[in-house]
Amino acid sequence: MNVFLMYLGAFIVGGVLCSAGQILIDRTRLTPAKILVLFVTVGVILTLLGVYQNIVKVGGAGATVPLTGFGYTLAKGTFSDVDKYGLLGAFTGGIKAAAAGITAAIFFGYLISVAFSPKAKR
């Protein structure tokens, strides 16, 4: 696939997902936490229906980096481990699949918290 088309697909898919989140923030009374849960859940449901894999093919990182992509990663890991380990895989697969991303978020969040001192909002 042409590199330009890969970037364009990521830009469009990521932009649509982020725009949907911004519209939910601006037009509804949903809290950011509820929107987060909604996006992860939508990612899992679309993966279950076999739709999200096609979105990933078009959008690449534009589809896997947003919160819906986290739901996609959890679901794919769960499906994989259920095939390997049975029912136990339903409990372990998602976390194993997302472990690197979760670890990176904790590590870099910690580094930023050490490097900068937060100020209270007023």
- Which structural class should the secondary elements be placed in? mainly alpha
Tally of individual helices = 6
Q: How many structural domains does the protein architecture include? A: 1
Q: What is the H-and-E element order?
A: HHHHHH
Helix fraction by DSSP (H/I, runs of at least 4): over 70%
Distance between the termini: 49 Å
Task: Specify the oligomeric state.
Answer: single chain
Rg result: 17 Å
**How many individual β-strands?**
0
Low-confidence stretches: none
Query: What would the principal axes of the Cα set say about the shape?
Result: globular
Main sheet attributes: strand count, strand direction, barrel closure:
none
Q: State mean pLDDT (0 to 100 scale).
A: 93
Strand content: under 5%
Structure report:
The chain has about 120 residues and is mainly alpha-helical. It has one domain. The chain contains 6 helices and no strands. The protein has helices at about 5-25, 30-50, 50-60, 60-65, 65-85, 85-115. Helix 5 (about 65-85) packs antiparallel against helix 6. The longest helix has 29 residues, at about 85-115. The N and C termini lie far apart (about 50 Å).
Q: Features of this protein?
A:
122 residues; 0% strand; mainly alpha; 84% helix
What is shown here, in short?
This protein has 122 residues and is mostly helical. 84% of the residues lie in helices and 0% in strands. It has 6 helices and no strands.
What topology emerges from the helices and strands here?
Elements: H1 3-27, H2 32-48, H3 52-59, H4 61-64, H5 67-85, H6 87-115
